Amino acid sequence: MYIKSIMVKNYRNYENIKLNFDKNLNIIIGDNAQGKTNLLEAVYVSGFGKSFRTSKDSELVNFDKPFANVKIEVQRDNGRVETIEFRINEKSKKEFLINGVNITRISELLGTINIILFYPDDLKLIKESPVERRKFINRELSHISHIYCSDIIEYNKILMQRNELLKRLIYKPDLKETIDIWNEQLADKGAKIILRRKKFIDDLNVISNKIHAGVTDQKEQLNIQYITAVKKLENYDTIKSDLILMLNKNIEMDIKRGFTSVGPHRDDMEISINGISIKSFGSQGQQRTAALSLKLSEIEIIKNDVGEYPILLLDDVMSELDINRQKDLIYTLKNVQAIITTTDVKNLLDDYINASKIIKIKNGNVLSH
Ligand SMILES: Nc1ncnc2c1ncn2[C@@H]1O[C@H](COP(=O)(O)OP(=O)(O)OP(=O)(O)O)[C@@H](O)[C@H]1O
């Protein structure tokens, strides 16, 4: 699958442009603040229904215009061409059309095109707290599994209700009997989530290890391990009973603290290179490459899951990789459409430039492509 073309009207700093993409490499060049990320964002919104930079749709409409409109044409592997279009009207209401037909729910849009974005913020995945890594796991798994997505929503609801009850138990100890109901429900959803995460992280480990070795010329061994308090990870039943056991064991402490101290909402991922934790000891370049390897692994995971390669959006990351890492990356990208932004091609390998469609952007206008 690849994006053939995009039409952008009154979106961010664009007034009216239409451009065609190459089915493989596309490089968007422009100085700072010219609209490179805005263009990637327009593609992203077409796939996910929302921006990765803001939750306010009104910000996506050009300051001087009443509405915005973006339309992309997608070429499928089976030869069919499909269109995805969104409009944001005067009241900041957003609507989506697939092949010209209005959809009523964003969930109908998800999966129409699969996109992987690599954005400078993704370094958080390596550097920051477990929350970022859980967000990554949840986001990736939600893209490939609707069931996982609804299990997470349900789990969080039950967790909130259990936490409410824990807070009330201080004043109303007789309510303690009711906690078993919440433990049972939490452990049921929790076990499903943990089981799915375990498989995802095992797959991610194998694939990202291979990709990372490739991108680092076999010098670095990337390893990803699932960190969870559950010890018996064999199957749904073992995980569920382990969770119930721990929930019961920690009950007094949980009542004192007013929250649930065990479950998938506390899980993490340990990322190491050559056996050393990259969060604490990795160089900036190693952290960046590791984050990129994780993202690139999704290419294979999505391909295995949905049968088509996703589209890769790389925002401002190439120039920060040394020439050897860039060289290895180009081979990893051979099967996918990549749209890459950069301020300058002089840091880019000639192989990239020669194999790419170059799109020059200035002040929301396409100078040449
Ligand atoms: N709603 C909007 N209407 C008009 N202009 C906007 C709107 N939102 C953002 N902009 C403008 O878009 C520009 C930023 O574009 P973008 O983030 O795509 O830059 P970029 O080319 O990726 O730059 P960098 O290389 O610095 O990341 C800014 O000048 C900003 O003022």
UniProtKB/TrEMBL annotation:
Protein origin, superkingdom: Bacteria
Entry keyword set: ATP-binding, Cytoplasm, DNA damage, DNA repair, DNA replication, DNA-binding, Nucleotide-binding, SOS response
InterPro entries, per the entry: DNA-binding_RecF, DNA-binding_RecF_CS, P-loop_NTPase, RecF/RecN/SMC_N, RecF_2
Compartments, record wording: Cytoplasm
A Pfam family annotated for this UniProt entry: SMC_N
Residues reported in the UniProt entry to bind ATP: 30-37
SUPFAM superfamilies per the UniProt record, alphabetical: P-loop containing nucleoside triphosphate hydrolases (SSF52540)
Predominant localisation class: cytoplasm
Residue ranges constituting the RecF/RecN/SMC N-terminal domain according to the UniProt record: 2-346
Keyword Transferase: no
Function: The RecF protein is involved in DNA metabolism; it is required for DNA replication and normal SOS inducibility. RecF binds preferentially to single-stranded, linear DNA. It also seems to bind ATP.
Family from the record: Belongs to the RecF family.
Name of the protein described by the UniProt record: DNA replication and repair protein RecF
Source organism of the structure: Fusibacter bizertensis
